[in-house]
Design goal:
The chain has 204 residues and is an alpha/beta fold. It contains eight helices and eight strands, in the order E-E-H-E-E-H-H-H-E-H-E-E-H-H-E-H. The protein has helices at residues 33-38, 54-57, 60-74, 77-90, 100-109, 149-158, 163-166, 194-201, and strands spanning 4-7, 14-15, 41-43, 50-51, 94-98, 120-124, 140-144, 173-177. A six-stranded parallel β-sheet has the order 3-1-5-6-7-8. Strands 2-4 form a two-stranded parallel sheet. Helix 5 links the parallel strand 5 (94-98) and strand 6 (120-124). The mean pLDDT is 96.
Length: 204
């Protein structure tokens, strides 16, 4: 059993020789490295494993294809059922999700309930439309930032402004501006920031 369950975002299992090695046990959410190592946090691993060349990694069509495939994956009943079993086993107090992981959880909540142990949901840089509804009474803390280039691109691709940019319009969601400050890959800046852990610990 773990206090926190982590749902990572898109393309975590995408690798390329030299330039993009596999992520560690925290699955790109490195702010949680210590908590994962002690078992206080646990990652629900999902996603498509794919190895590409460094040149292919720069090809937008390759990335877009994987995005659509992983979006299809999180709609699957099998994966959502696996998440249900995982949550029942872990009985977490907090569920933390990032980017497409937020989409995954929102889809899950349309079909399944969370264990009664879950007292808080933390959504970070959610790749969801700003008017998305959530089928849960568990408090949702939504961390957003307007200068996320990945979510700007997603807004264009999906023809829908993403909540992770300008906050959710859902009245049951607590929106919190969490500035992205790490220049390398701004989209994952928050999940590499130890300030995130301080915020999550304040919920316990």
């Amino acid at each position: 059993m773990s206090r926190i369950v982590l749902l990572h975002g898109f393309a975590v299992h995408l690798t390329a020789p030299v330039v993009r090695p596999p992520f560690g046990p925290s699955a790109s959410m490195s702010a949680f490295d210590h908590l994962v190592s002690t078992g206080e946090a646990k990652v629900f691993p999902w996603g498509i494993e794919r190895n590409v060349s460094p040149i292919e990694l720069l090809n937008p069509s390759v990335i877009q294809k994987l995005y659509k495939e992983e979006l299809d994956l999180i709609h699957s009943n099998e994966l959502q059922t696996n998440l249900k079993l995982f949550l029942e086993q872990e009985q977490p107090k907090i569920v933390v999700c990032h980017s497409m992981g937020c989409t995954f959880l929102q889809l899950y909540l349309a079909h399944f309930s969370l264990p009664s142990s879950v007292k808080s949901i933390v959504m970070i840089q959610s790749d969801l439309p700003i008017n998305t509804s959530f089928h849960t009474s568990v408090p949702i803390h939504h961390l957003y930032c307007p200068w996320d280039p990945t979510l700007i691109l997603s807004s264009v691709t999906n023809k829908s402004l993403r909540a992770g940019l300008l906050a959710s319009k859902n009245s049951n969601v607590q929106n919190i501006l969490f500035p992205l400050v790490r220049i390398s890959n701004l989209h994952t800046s928050s999940i590499r920031d130890k300030k995130l852990i301080a915020f999550i610990n304040s919920l316990s």
